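Predict the assembly for these two chains.
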Amino acid sequence: MPDARPVILFAAKTERWEQYSGPLRTALKDAGLGYATLTTEAAPEDVDYVVYAPNSGLTDFTPFTRLKAVLNLWAGVEDVTGNPTLKAPLARMVDDCLTEGMVEWVTGHVLRHHLGMDLYLDGQDGVWRAGTAPPLARDRTVAMLGLGVLGAACATMLASLNFRVLGWSRSRKDLPGVETEHGAEGLDRVLSRAEIVVLLLPDTPATESTLNARTLSLLPRGAVIVNPGRGRLIDDDALLAALDEGQVGHATLDVFRTEPLPPEHPYWAHPKVTVTPHIASETRAVSASRVIVENIRRGEAGEPFLNLVDRDAGY
Amino acid sequence: MPDARPVILFAAKTERWEQYSGPLRTALKDAGLGYATLTTEAAPEDVDYVVYAPNSGLTDFTPFTRLKAVLNLWAGVEDVTGNPTLKAPLARMVDDCLTEGMVEWVTGHVLRHHLGMDLYLDGQDGVWRAGTAPPLARDRTVAMLGLGVLGAACATMLASLNFRVLGWSRSRKDLPGVETEHGAEGLDRVLSRAEIVVLLLPDTPATESTLNARTLSLLPRGAVIVNPGRGRLIDDDALLAALDEGQVGHATLDVFRTEPLPPEHPYWAHPKVTVTPHIASETRAVSASRVIVENIRRGEAGEPFLNLVDRDAGY
């Protein structure tokens, strides 16, 4: 048995180790892997698994000669997928709790814009604004760009609230209760009808600046943008111009090209922009540790890994 | 056939007639009742049905000797249920669209409080408030007081978003996915656990000031009140005191003892109160007309009426 003892290298910043070491050890024990070595320092040639945060400093996987898998701590893998030294399988984080948090944030902010809440929150001025009831969700069109695990879950929840949901993805996907389109022309058709646009696309060269001057001009005037996906999906200058012109009515943004968003960035002071500090998809340590350990258990049992990244597609 | 031609008196304010006459005639025609007389003036002894708004001025039903039913335009019947001159069956408005609008408003404002949205909406100040992600809905307890058509629909939607939903009603009711309690002791138990309390109780003598100084003190400190039900469910002075003390963290109120809420009312200026102008359950004329006409069709066909009010219980 000592020879089979897997070595798991935790490669992430120190504060993550404080957050994850306990939950990971508990999850290993629960999975019958209490004998595994979980460490932040190991000789590369001894390491079987890397639990990985791309900002950890580890970028050269060449000396990791017996590596069975790299298990990403986050859903986003754009900073590792292009790494040519990584030959081992790469798994992204797919955590039900992460999906739940995203569904809650997206549903909440879509309903906020649908109901026109800001009008009342800003207008506690003694004026009874009768007759301002919004249309029903059944008469409101929401576009979901991206139908992966997160996008599909959010689209399904919005459909169950009776929103008319248009879903778009690069390649064709079907989703019950959602009218789906795909490809470049499908995107134009979806945007031309969308009153609220939610961005949950992966961050790849092909999705960079999906919302730009041309695509923003296709929207019905006054449409709202909600971005809990990735900052690079939006051309920021084009969005600011569209907000100033009134083409876009509001933008609620949780992710940015630079995070934290610098204090001098025009998004902060713009009256039609709401900034939230990358909270829509906060990974929770307990549930994420269970997901990581399930893949280690599979590796040790010779079963196929879950949530593998398609390195060619980049996600 | 002329003898069987039903006479329908529309008893509501003039602006309602402008809103409803077209949709009601369309719905009558669609139901094969295009031959019925729909009017705002008729001899009481000729009237078969009254489409009724309690603020119409009609309060003495004694001369309406052949009345088959009174069909209320709204869900609330508190201003007519105690009328001793009304002997005919009384039906309340139960409109799917009204339910949908209520579910949207309640879900939106519960998510707003759950996600702590106001922190970000008020704080667009360049400060990146990292680490402020809320707990998941699965770790948030919401109490739904009232499990009628509206309360049950809202509770079910909140449960599908993974909230821990506690439901309370006067008499015992079961609802899938919801932990239910009933009776006076059940109310105390529910309130002692509720982080967010939604009021959708009927307005009866028994429910007046359900939230008062004693019951508000049972809540976990900082709990949030959401009231789309009726203004009389809350003792306003007790709520204001609880807000000032910090016992209640926020109140989002759509209904009031006096509407419109007078400009000088302390709710308007209170930093922990959000006022919305009775928009959570706006009746939509097209769908409401179909509901009313379905009851007329049933009356003419000798079938039982839908949505009858229990006059003794008061709802």
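The domain at 7-95+283-301 of chain B is CATH 3.40.50.720 (Rossmann fold). Chain B touches chain A through 50 residues (CB under 8 Å).
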